[in-house]
Amino acid sequence: MNPFFTLKLKPIKTSDHTLSVHSIESFGTHDGPGIRMVIFLQGCKLKCLYCHNPDTIDTHGGTEYEIEELVQRAVKMKAYFGDKGGVTVSGGEPMLQAKNLITFFKRLKEEDIHTNIDTNGRVLNHPVIELLDKHTDLVMLDIKHMTEKGYQYITGEKNKETSFSFANYRETSGKKMWLRYVLIPEITNTPELLHALGDYFKDFETIEQIELQPYHKLGIHKWEALGWKYELEHARENTEEELQNAANILSKYFKKVKIN
Asked: What pTM value is reported for the model?
């Protein structure tokens, strides 16, 4: 099991026309196609051992932004978005604020702005379904692990199948999806796990690409600032050969494999 602490999460409380935001990146290039305005929302119900933004986990402490203010910020950036860019909502876990994201994404689509969500796929309720089906151009789904034991170790929560149920729902909708997968030597980056990942998703038609996220320790200082113990200090970063080998394995299953 995940040795991470037990954090008592409070519900995210916002008014009907606001979002609880951790931070905003104006010119993101690694969170979807093109140049993007990336909004990191506050709150997540997973506690991933490698999280590089642990200060987004707690469901309170974010800054409330009026949705229309965020829309107007995006409108001012449209010239930079070009044909491919747009707005990505990440976190934390965006789907915890799905009801208000419907309002936000609906306004963005009225302004002809591409919408993208980076999610761990833990939530699939009625607001999420409406958000996905009517207002979300692209979903980037984080796959944590291919075994239940590994999923629990990494995230601190049970039932890896929630992410797969989310993926299957997106597939049936026929709408675009990318996968994301963090490569940790001996923990997620083994040939057996990579083949299992590829075999599960090989027949999905909506997956445009899979992004491999090399494991790094750049967020340790954030854990220390919060007074939390970083439990993956023993893990090492991938060699270039390991990254390429992982990409080679997955290229047998996916249209496009990208190493971030």
From this structure: 0.92
Closest Cα partner for 116 from 168, 56, 178, 69?
178
Which DSSP symbol is given to 84?
T
Q: Tell me the helix, strand and coil percentages in the chain, rounded to 5.
A: 35, 25, 40
Give the pLDDT confidence of 66-93 residue by residue, as tens digits. 999 999 999 999 999 999 999 999 999 9
| Residue 251 identity | S
pLDDT in tens, 141-176: 999 999 999 999 999 998 888 999 999 999 999 999
Q: How many CB atoms lie within 10 A of CB 71?
A: 20
Phi–psi pair at 98, nearest 5 degrees:
-60, -40
Contacts of 239 (CB under 8 A, 6+ apart): none
Contact assessment for residue 135 and residue 86, using Cβ atoms and an 8 Å cutoff: no
Pairing of strands 63-66, 18-28: antiparallel
| DSSP letter assigned to residue 9 | P
